[in-house]
Amino acid sequence: MADCTDPEICDAYEEVRDDKNETSWLILQYVSDRSDKLTLKSKGTGGLQDFVDKLDDNQAAFGYIRLNVSNDELSVRTKFIFITWVGSGVKIMRKAKLSVHVSDVKKVLRACAIDVNAHDKAELDEEEILTQLRRAGGANYDRRSYDY
Fold this sequence. Notes:
Elements lengths: L6 H11 L7 E6 L7 E7 L3 H6 L6 E11 L5 E11 L5 H15 L7 E5 L7 H11 L12
Parallel strand pairs: 4-5
Antiparallel strand pairs: 1-2, 1-3, 3-4
Subcellular location: Cytoplasm, Cytoskeleton
Protein name: 1883_t:CDS:1
GO biological process, one term: regulation of actin filament polymerization
C-alpha cells in the first residue's frame, strides 16, 4: 500500500484543481527506493513541458496536470491528466509495486479525464495528450479529424 498521507499532497492537488490558482501540475515521488511513502516532489505553473522537464529517468513518480482543451474557437474545457511515470533506470521491485500503488494514489488524485503511463519523456507529447483528451471528451465539432 502506498502512503499518501503527506498533507502537502492534498494541498497541491487542491491547488491544481482550482482554476483560480496558477499551479497547473504536481509530481509525487517515493521518499526512497525502499519506501512506499510518497511525497510532493514539485509543483509548478508552467505547462506540460515544464512538468516533463522535472521528471527523473531514475525515479518512479505520479503526476497530475491541468490542461485546457479546445475543440473549437468557442469552447475551452479544463481537463485533468493522471500520469504514472516509470523512468528507464527504475529498479524491478519498484516497477512491480507501482502497479499496486496506482489505486492508492488515485484515492488522493481522484478526478481525471485520462490516465497516461509513460516510460520515456517522448511519450508525454502535448499534441498526443490533447488528442487523447479530445477523444475522451465526447462530441467533436472541430473540423480536424482524428484516427480512431
